[in-house]
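User: Here's a chain of 75 residues. Predict its fold as tokens.
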Amino acid sequence: MFSSFGYTSFTAAGIFVASCNPTNGDNTHPHIGHCSESSVYPVVIICAILCGMGASTIWISQGGFIDVLSKRCPQ
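Assistant: Prediction complete.
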């Protein structure tokens, strides 16, 4: 359950960044408010860290699960 939170937060950060995309196609105007670079980058970095932590727990859990299965059914 903890691992899925990391992936969910990273997906939410992607939705947040996509919502900040200008609709007129003109990238010359700086983003303001919650879409400024000073707020977008920290959100994405924090969510990426959470995703990495969640991914590591998935890999550790997978190894433990395979270890338990291999001890129960050695063939």
